[in-house]
């Protein structure tokens, strides 16, 4: 195809798409569907060219189409269509590149997930039993209100409202009792070690 014929074809395509979008702005759903179906192959080529080897090319294409749909009312039919469309496309590609870069700087990929604990480093039954006994002893030194709050909320797993109904204490006083009990237990355990 000669340069002159190529230029004419581009001009005709531009006018054709401009007319479709103008009709779509006036509520013609068929013109809008036709525009999208004609744009899609070209859009895929553009995204693939600007975003080569990306696994998310189709995601970027869809984002461009969503953006086009969202801002189609801003298009001025007296202006060229392609520069407007390419601006949208370029911005969505840049957004995708930024997201990928941000994700790659914050994520680490591994082939095999490491175990939380290896078998040698976990506590034995005796150590677990000793820990429970230490907690029981420390808990027995707490005032009755704090011990009851810990038992109901932390051991039995009741909600604050349920514990409040059982004890007759306010939710706020139960929160304070639990906070003080945990602090006292932590201090006592630290002193032991």
Give structural notes.
It is a single chain. The chain is mostly helical. It has 2 domains: 3-106, RNA polymerase sigma factor, region 2, helix turn helix motif (Rna Polymerase Sigma Factor, Chain: A), CATH 1.10.1740.10; 125-192, Orthogonal Bundle (Arc Repressor Mutant, subunit A). The protein is built from 8 helices and no strands. It has helices at 3-25, 29-50, 57-71, 81-106, 125-140, 144-155, 160-167, 171-192. The radius of gyration is 33 Å and the shape is elongated. The mean pLDDT is 84.
List the helices and strands and how they pair.
Layout: H1 3-25, H2 29-50, H3 57-71, H4 81-106, H5 125-140, H6 144-155, H7 160-167, H8 171-192
Helix pairs in contact: 1-2, 2-3, 3-4, 5-8, 6-8
């Amino acid at each position: 195809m000669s340069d002159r014929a190529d230029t004419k074809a581009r001009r005709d395509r531009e006018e054709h798409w401009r007319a479709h979008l103008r009709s779509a702005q006036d509520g013609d759903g068929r013109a809008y569907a036709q525009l999208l179906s004609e744009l899609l192959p070209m859009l895929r080529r553009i995204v693939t060219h600007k975003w080569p080897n990306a696994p998310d090319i189709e995601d970027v294409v869809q984002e461009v189409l969503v953006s086009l749909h969202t801002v189609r009312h801003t298009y001025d039919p007296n202006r060229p269509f392609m520069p407007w469309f390419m601006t949208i496309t370029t911005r969505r590609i840049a957004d995708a590149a930024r997201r990928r870069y941000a994700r790659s700087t914050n994520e680490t990929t591994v082939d095999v997930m490491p175990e939380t604990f290896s078998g040698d480093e976990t506590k034995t039954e005796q150590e677990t039993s000793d820990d429970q006994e230490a907690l029981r002893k420390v808990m027995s030194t707490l005032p009755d209100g704090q011990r009851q709050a810990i038992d109901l909320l932390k051991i039995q797993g009741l909600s604050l409202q349920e514990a409040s109904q059982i004890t007759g204490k306010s939710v706020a006083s139960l929160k304070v009792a639990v906070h003080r009990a945990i602090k006292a237990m932590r201090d006592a355990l630290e002193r032991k070690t």
